[in-house]
């Protein structure tokens, strides 16, 4: 059996032998660090199984691959595969849920703690001589605050949201779970506008759907307290980025921590990446790293192999199509 991985680099970071051994045991494995749109069909032709993280497998690609029987998505989200076309072609599609729960929750608090203590900024100031020149035994680049007693509003309470809640409670924070537009889950959920008004920190963990596309727009931002912190480690499309830039221009929000943007990598001149913006110190953007701890990437590769093995045994797991 021929197995093709279309974008292996993000998972293995240039160390393929450390990650893909279990998959290699299942058949003839071809690893491609990256694959452009025009190379998908030539590289996947003749393969029984194709694995992809961000390379798109649309209806045209699926129709051009008659030997394909299985697509393994190296992620939780499955929007890179045309699921309806896969079903029509008799191609099984699986994903890998839950592999990065702890990793993402950890980054959420890395971003929150940046705004409460700015460890990196204080350390940089020390290196630049700021402490040596200070008239007192200490100096502060900003007011420092405690998380104990503060309120965290979760917009989305799946596995990652609940992991974030567990950490927040250990810090002594109060948790409010806001209702997500389009979600059938309403039990123990506070109406979203009310939850936003209560929160010192708002963290997004809901899926990107038609109902949540651009959820963080002008109305959402106006409902937040002007000194609140906004964190997004979910999907970039949850935020109307122009509306967020406008709110920052108006002096709203103490801090914004983003690990995702609507376009990745972002185009030059993206409204939120302007280094010269007067609010630039209040915005921290990391390049989609939340999922990518060494441990999480090993779990991802192992789970991808386990998914394919289960399919070959006639018992597919984590099937989405």
List keywords for this structure.
11 strands; globular; Rossmann fold; six-stranded parallel sheet; alpha/beta
What does this structure look like?
With 321 residues, this protein is α/β, with parallel strands linked by helices. It contains 13 helices and eleven strands. The protein folds into two domains: 117 residues, 3-Layer(aba) Sandwich (Rossmann fold), CATH 3.40.50.720; 185 residues, NAD(P)-binding Rossmann-like Domain (Rossmann fold, 3-Layer(aba) Sandwich). It starts with a strand and ends in a 9-residue tail after the last helix.
CATH architecture of the largest domain: 3-Layer(aba) Sandwich
The level of helicity is: 25-40%
**Main sheet specs:** 6 strands, parallel
CATH homologous superfamily designation of the largest domain: NAD(P)-binding Rossmann-like Domain
